[in-house]
Amino acid sequence: MKKKHARHLVAFSIFFYLISFLLVENNTHANIFEIRYGGVKNDSSVSIKRFNDGCFIIAGTTQSFGSGETDGYLIKIDDVGNVLWEKTYGGASKDSFSEALITTDGGIIAIGSSLSYGSSRGKFYLIKTDKDGNEEWMKTFGHQDYSLGFSVDQTDDDGFILLGNSTETDAWLDFRLTKLDKLGNEEWTKFISRSQDDTGRCVKQTSDGGYILTGLSGGWSSSPKMWIIRTNSKGEKIWDKTYGGLDRDNWDYGYYINESKDGNFVALGRIYDEANKFDIAFIKIDQDGNEIWFHKYGGSENDFGNEFIEIDEGYAIVGTTSSFGLTCNEVFLIETDENGIISYTQTFKHSENSSGGAGIATISNNHYAIIANTAVYDNNSDIYFIDFDKSVSCKDTDNDGVQDSLDKCPNTPSNLAVYSNGCVAEDIYDQVNTLNAAVNEKNAIINQLNEDISKMFTKQELEGIVSKVLMWGDTNGDGKIGLKEAINALLITAGVDEE
Q1: Which CA distances in Å does 442 have to 12, 392, 414, 415?
Q2: CA distance 319 to 295
Q3: Cα 246–168–116 angle (5° rounding)?
Q4: CA pair distance 88, 67, nearest whole angstrom
Q5: In this predicted model, what pLDDT tens digit does every residue of 151-201 receive, in sequence order?
Q6: Domains of the chain by range and CATH?
């Protein structure tokens, strides 16, 4: 065999090996659609909500865009992730969003914290926009020292209830609960404290017109505990209960709470366990705060829950796991039954980067929109959007790398190259029939090729071949390089003649 043809055989074998794995990866994840948003600096998300027309609003904070050091950030996307508009909000200093909701008039309300308007340490920051993100009004609340806003809910009178923390009453943090009318005018504010340093993280209006709150009690000054408070419609406390809280500085925390369909309450947070790590805490209590069930989910490392939604079968939780998946800090989806028993889990990550789950919305039964954050490189993070349809089966009965729901040629032997529809790529075999043995035993061939490659190609030659194949490969303009396209491109760029 001529040396030129021997070199081509090695190159062909490399490409068949690589392409076979690309086909498996693409089809195995056909029920997951992912996209990133952001610029060249740090951009992050905190929540996602779905409009009635199927579009989504993503809220977060941007360092890449806007006029300040950081700004509040809203992105509206359609049902396939295309950006319809994106806008920033804030002044010259640091401003951020912690949550956003779609209001009854079809607009958006976003809460966060601002250092641009009257305080160098933070005030509640509230923006009301129309459906297109145009600002209708802006309000700040708090004093000159320290007030941070974390949660907003629209009330049954079309007003708003806000929750965060503040040092307005003394040097220590208290829950700050503020009621507004529909134009953002303050009606009343209550400060609720249990110990030194308490931070309110989530508030929801209850079916009786009152409010249910969760957050942290303890902070830097004592053993922090997950804290749940119920108030009446005027913000006056009815009862409060704490959960977790070993006698040490372990920072148990309540992140999210809501009233369940049966009139009880479900809370999500984190609990420090005896193995010196955090677990996800999922708690159901009755209307008087008595525990119905209490579950901890986690593994050998830290795991966190950030938000949940109630679904037909029970609950769907999104958070971050370092115990499961392939790398540290992956997006973590948990489904449970109505009693909090885990029925399904799934992890997601963008490439090899750390990715943490922030919010979740329902598209349909077993179909979720998840928002997360992913590191790109040092000092650069992006917003990470995941459309995950659990109802689309990924089962691959014949093990050819194409899931059953897409396989037009079932029962194909697993050692044959196939197109994305699962049918054998016979025309490719006609072009490279001398490589059948190499395809059938690709793992052994790759080991053998390690030595051959070093003799036949320099590093620069290999890089040149790969670069040219990628340049020539996409012949049909679909943004992908299929198996046939890759082989044809290799023939062209490597200069193979008809002999």
Answers
A1: 11, 30, 12, 9
A2: 15
A3: 105
A4: 8
A5: 999 999 999 999 999 999 988 899 999 999 999 999 999 999 987 789 999
A6: 3-27+405-494 (no CATH), 32-389 (2.130.10.10)
pLDDT at 226 over 90: yes
Average model confidence (pLDDT) across the chain: 83
What is the model's pTM?
0.75
Amino acid identity of 189?
A: T
Separation in Å, CA 221 to CA 224, 246, 493: 8, 14, 68
Sorted by sequence, the CB contacts under 8 Å of residue 164 that are 6+ apart come out as 111, 113, 124, 147, 148, 149, 150, 151, 175, 176, 199, 200
Return the SS3 of 249.
coil
- pLDDT tens column, 402-416: 666 667 788 888 667
Count Cβ atoms below 10 Å from residue 289 Cβ, excluding itself.
15
For 297-333, b/e burial (b = at least 16 CB within 10 A) is bbeeebbbbbbbeeeeebbbbbbbbbbbbeeebbbbb
The C-alpha atoms of residue 151 and residue 166 are separated, in whole angstroms, by 14
Phi, psi of 456 (to 5 degrees): -90, -25
Query: Helix 3-28 and helix 442-456: axis angle, to 10°?
Result: 130
Which helix (H) or strand (E) element contains residue 6? Answer: helix 3-28
